[in-house]
């Protein structure tokens, strides 16, 4: 079965080698007369590609999604990308294209410009991934895909009931875990990584994003205006002049179709935003269904059900492992769970 990358390679050659000849023969005027731009990367790359098309409607902008394992070889991939004027790529591992990853691509196609994936944890400090240590690069999927709650995982591994686990979702627990103190570290991590590795200064952009309020759907899924600003920086990098445009009018919130991790109310309050405990399930078929959501009790119950089907050795997360290994932290969280439960402080939504 062909992946998106395989199909995009075929489409690219049709656009590059066949359609201009047909247009010349038929007299049809080609719509895209600007530069050819290729965007390669993870789930954020479509948003960057779309934003670049908005910035220059005359450009041919093609998106190559490095999520599945393509049949195409690195040789064919490089030969295809050589037909583009500009090539921008996320880092990607070997295996998505047969014969190498992004490092191999850079060596064989020096004009490739690497760009960062935007990550920011301050709005979702409880979001973690669970590593299945029995599999290389293995992750456990929960009720909302790979996103898990560190608190819920801790509660399950300590043997707490669902009701007691629910009582841990409280301001006093978040405060004890340092969830209110993540902004500076998250900002520094984002700005340092984008500057040191990719040569991009996003300090002004980060300030503008924060003034707009929440700008992430999860720690790894930014909102579309974030990717638009990143695209403008990439245009500037290669001396392309971006069009003055109101992106909000044309924005497509592609990543909103995926899972959305809530911003817990006490955390949202710190940032002047509205929070909640509504967990959104992925829905990439919005033309046929509106999708579904889970309340906090439903989410915890679903997590417990899924975790119960795994061996404990498959439910590893460094942060939660550290909490469990530290008697003081573990005991304190257990005490807060009991006190909050008795006091009726458990959220219901």
SS-based class: alpha/beta
Quaternary form = single chain
Q: Strand percentage, roughly?
A: 5-15%
Number of domains: 2
Tell me what the CATH architecture of the largest domain is. 3-Layer(aba) Sandwich
Describe the protein in words.
The chain is of the alpha/beta class. The protein folds into two domains: 4-115 and 222-256, 3-Layer(aba) Sandwich (Rossmann fold); 127-182 and 258-342. It has 15 helices and eight strands. The strands form three sheets. Strands 2-1-3-4 form a four-stranded parallel beta sheet, with helices on both faces. Strands 5-6 form a two-stranded antiparallel sheet. Strands 7-8 form a two-stranded antiparallel sheet. Strand 3, helix 4 (102-108) and strand 4 form a beta-alpha-beta unit. The longest helix has 23 residues, at 4-26. The two termini are 42 Å apart. The mean pLDDT is 93.
How is this fold's topology laid out?
Blueprint: H1 4-26, E1 36-41, H2 45-55, E2 60-65, H3 74-81, E3 86-89, H4 102-108, E4 112-114, E5 127-128, E6 148-149, H5 150-157, H6 162-167, H7 171-176, H8 183-198, H9 203-212, H10 224-237, H11 247-250, H12 265-270, E7 279-280, E8 293-294, H13 296-307, H14 318-325, H15 327-342
Parallel strand pairs: 1-2, 1-3, 3-4
Antiparallel strand pairs: 5-6, 7-8
Helix pairs in contact: 2-10, 5-14
């Amino acid at each position: 079965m062909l992946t998106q990358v395989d199909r995009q390679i075929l489409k690219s050659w049709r656009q590059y080698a066949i359609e201009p000849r047909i247009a010349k023969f038929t007299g049809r005027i080609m719509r895209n007369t600007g530069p050819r731009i290729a965007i390669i990367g993870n789930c954020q790359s479509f948003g960057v590609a779309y934003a670049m098309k908005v910035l220059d409607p005359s450009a041919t902008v093609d998106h190559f999604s490095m999520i599945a394992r393509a049949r195409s070889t690195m040789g064919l991939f490089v030969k295809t990308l050589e037909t583009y004027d500009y090539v921008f790529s996320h880092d990607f591992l070997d295996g998505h294209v047969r014969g190498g990853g992004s490092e191999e691509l850079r060596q064989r196609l020096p004009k490739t410009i690497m760009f960062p994936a935007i990550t920011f944890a301050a709005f979702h400090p409880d979001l973690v991934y669970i590593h299945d240590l029995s599999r290389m690069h293995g992750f456990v999927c929960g009720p909302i895909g790979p996103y898990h709650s560190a608190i819920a995982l801790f509660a399950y591994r300590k043997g707490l009931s669902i009701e007691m686990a629910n009582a841990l979702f409280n301001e006093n627990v978040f405060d004890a875990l340092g969830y209110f103190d993540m902004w500076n570290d998250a900002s520094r991590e984002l700005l340092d990584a984008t500057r040191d590795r990719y040569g991009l200064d996003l300090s002004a952009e980060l300030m503008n994003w924060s003034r707009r309020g929440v700008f992430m759907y999860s720690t790894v899924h930014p909102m579309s205006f974030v990717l638009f600003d990143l695209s403008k920086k990439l245009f500037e990098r290669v001396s392309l002049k971006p069009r003055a445009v109101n992106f909000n009018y044309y924005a497509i919130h592609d990543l909103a179709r995926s899972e959305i991790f809530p911003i817990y109310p006490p955390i949202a309050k710190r940032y002047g935003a509205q929070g909640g405990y509504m967990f959104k399930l992925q829905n990439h078929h919005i033309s046929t269904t509106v999708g579904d959501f889970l309340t906090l009790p439903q989410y915890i119950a679903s997590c417990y059900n899924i975790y119960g089907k795994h061996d404990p050795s498959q439910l590893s997360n460094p942060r939660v492992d550290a909490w469990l290994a530290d008697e003081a932290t573990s005991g304190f969280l257990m005490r807060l769970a009991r006190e909050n439960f008795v006091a009726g402080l458990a959220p219901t939504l």
